[in-house]
Design a protein that fits this description.
InterPro entries: Ig-like_dom, Ig-like_dom_sf, Ig-like_fold, Ig_sub, Ig_V-set, TCR_alpha_variable. By secondary structure, the chain is mainly β. Helix content is 10%, strand content 44%. It has one domain: Immunoglobulin-like (Sandwich). The radius of gyration is 18 Å and the shape is globular.
Amino acid sequence: MSRHWGALLGLLWVQVCWVRGLDVEQSPSALSLQEGAGAALKCNFSQAVNSVQWFRQNPGGGGLTRLISVASGLKQSGRLNCTLNTRERSSTLHIADSQLEDAASYLCAAEAQCCLLIRGLQATCSCACAPAPPPGGPAQQPHQQAWAIWDSAGLQGRWQ
């Protein structure tokens, strides 16, 4: 009897802890700058996140390039610096001394909180991506959002 209750409680725990989805809101929706000016792109999340990665996609499409990732606080890489404020559930990508080649679509991807593995069941983390505007001009689709799933195979996603 106690074994039966243990299995039932384990299933209930998985259902309570399962991450349902993560909404991401970006701002500003479009941005135009003078060359040499700084840019700040921000993503707000609907729930707590473990880490954030920022990507860029060059005009005309193509693959995504990972720029920077941060698990907490501040991380700097060249002219880029990225903050993750877990209390405010937000991340900001700062681009210093913007150059013409910085014109692109920028996306943030966040890894949401996950539960521990329970009785061998593998929990899946949910991620969401939102394109940020390019520093040199408006994004082609500024309100486009992507949802993705982090699993043991890596990042998989689909555009909505």
